């Protein structure tokens, strides 16, 4: 089924500090300066007569002054639009209007501030913290059982009876996924009624049952243009299974994510199907919109790229959403980085409102 998005825009008016985050205010040119030109004195003297019978006469000096008319004030220059503002706008499979979240790249700041840069995970009461990763980079292990956190907050996403991607809970009924999981082609939605989302799936075991989908979301940059840096989205469930299994936290930062400890939980396609695996390693490089790593992953878009950040109450805190396995083999696979814009949209999909600017 193909539906065109109904994108509503909202003009965000922020404080001066917020304006600085987006960029310097563009100012219009002022009025042209008034110029005045004054002619110098002109003096004319009569020629000397041949005979001194007449008195020489001298013409009186004449002075002329020309004043230019004042120039009309120039029209103020139009503010330069953020080229990413539209591309980061949410679109939904139902056509429901979503407010426009201005995408200003990675933004600035880290840690708990008045404009939140993290959302804590919820492993559910008395759940043990995730096992710290080994210092050895670039390996993966089978997760069995899948009932510990955060494995149980990791989901297998099925469509029309076939597993199509991985995902992770970010709230009671919200699952973050790759954009191609919900919109596999340009301007094309999958049918929500055909989804089946299974947390902690372990072969034929489904310890927490499954949920259906009521709404799919992504952003304009993916839905209209399938731009890789906008490859992320969400599934709204018809249940609140997150209250049982918990959910991942997520954060954004402008710091370079180089050699950062990372884990990826998901359902790869190159091993036994429907079994969850955990890849462990370190990031290799990052930019404002992508994070790259060289760890074993395959065919599991939507998997959380996470790290433990205990002091933010974020024991499984996502930094990126895995999207691509890079050639050759696992070298430089990558995920959509959670920058300020992605963070705001994930926050919106979880809470239904955007965080303070």
How does this model look, in words?
This protein has helices at residues 16-22, 179-182, 220-223, 242-245, 340-351; strands at 36-38, 65-67, 90-92, 118-119, 139-142, 154-159, 162-169, 174-177, 195-199, 213-219, 233-237, 249-251, 261-266, 277-286, 290-293, 304-309, 314-324, 333-337. It starts with 15 loop residues before the first helix and ends in a 6-residue tail after the last helix. 41% of the residues are buried. The protein is mostly beta strands and 357 residues long. It is built from five helices and 18 strands. It has a domain at 90-107 and 116-123 and 130-351: Trypsin-like serine proteases (Thrombin, subunit H, Beta Barrel), CATH 2.40.10.10. A hairpin with a 3-residue loop joins β14 and β15 (290-293). Residues 1-58, 101-116 and 124-136 have low confidence and may be disordered. The strands form three sheets. The protein has a seven-stranded antiparallel sheet. It has a six-stranded antiparallel β-barrel with strand order 13-14-15-18-17-16.
Main sheet specs = 7 strands, antiparallel
Euclidean distance between termini CA atoms: 36 Å
Helix percentage: under 10%
- Any idea what the CATH architecture of the domain at 90-107 and 116-123 and 130-351 is? Beta Barrel
Number of extended strands: 18
Strand order of the largest sheet: 3-10-11-8-7-6-9
Globally, the shape reads globular
Determine the structural class based on helices, strands and strand pairing.
mainly beta
Sequence of secondary-structure elements: HEEEEEEEEHEEHEHEEEEEEEH
Given the structure, what is the number of helices?
A: 5
Average residue pLDDT: 75
Radius of gyration: 32 Å
Q: Write down the CATH class of the domain at 90-107 and 116-123 and 130-351.
A: Mainly Beta
Roughly what fraction of the amino acids lie in strands? 25-35%
Q: What is the name of the CATH superfamily of the domain at 90-107 and 116-123 and 130-351? A: Trypsin-like serine proteases
CATH fold label of the domain at 90-107 and 116-123 and 130-351 = Thrombin, subunit H
């Amino acid at each position: 089924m193909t539906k065109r998005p109904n994108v509503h825009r909202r003009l965000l008016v922020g404080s001066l500090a917020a304006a600085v985050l987006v960029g310097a205010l563009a100012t219009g040119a002022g009025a042209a300066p008034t110029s005045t030109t004054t002619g110098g004195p002109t003096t004319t003297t009569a020629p000397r007569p041949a005979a001194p019978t007449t008195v020489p006469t001298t013409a009186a000096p004449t002075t002329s002054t020309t004043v230019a008319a004042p120039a009309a004030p120039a029209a103020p220059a139009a503010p330069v639009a953020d080229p990413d503002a539209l591309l980061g706008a949410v679109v939904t499979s139902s056509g429901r209007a979503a407010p426009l979240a201005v995408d200003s790249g990675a933004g600035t700041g880290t840690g708990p501030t008045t404009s939140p840069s993290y959302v804590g995970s919820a492993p559910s009461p008395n759940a043990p913290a995730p096992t710290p990763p080994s210092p050895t980079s670039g390996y993966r292990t089978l997760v069995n059982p899948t009932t510990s956190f955060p494995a149980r907050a990791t989901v297998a996403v099925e469509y029309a009876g076939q597993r199509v991607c991985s995902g992770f809970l970010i709230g009671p009924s919200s699952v973050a996924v790759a954009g191609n999981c919900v919109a596999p082609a340009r301007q094309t939605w999958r049918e929500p009624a055909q989804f089946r989302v299974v947390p902690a799936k372990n072969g034929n075991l489904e310890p927490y049952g499954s949920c259906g989908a009521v709404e799919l979301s992504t952003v304009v940059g993916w839905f209209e243009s399938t731009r890789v840096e906008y490859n992320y989205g969400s599934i709204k469930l018809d249940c609140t299974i997150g209250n049982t299994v918990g959910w991942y936290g997520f954060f954004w930062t402008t710091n370079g994510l180089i050699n950062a400890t990372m884990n990826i939980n998901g359902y790869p396609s190159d091993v036994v199907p429907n079994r969850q695996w955990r890849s462990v390693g370190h990031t290799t490089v990052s930019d404002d919109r992508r994070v790259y790593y060289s760890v074993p992953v395959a065919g599991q878009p939507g998997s959380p790229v996470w790290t433990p950040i205990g002091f933010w109450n974020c024991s499984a805190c996502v930094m990126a959403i895995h999207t691509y396995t890079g050639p050759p083999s696992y070298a430089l696979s990558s995920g959509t980085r959670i920058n300020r814009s992605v963070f705001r949209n994930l926050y919106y999909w979880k809470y239904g409102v955007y965080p303070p600017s």
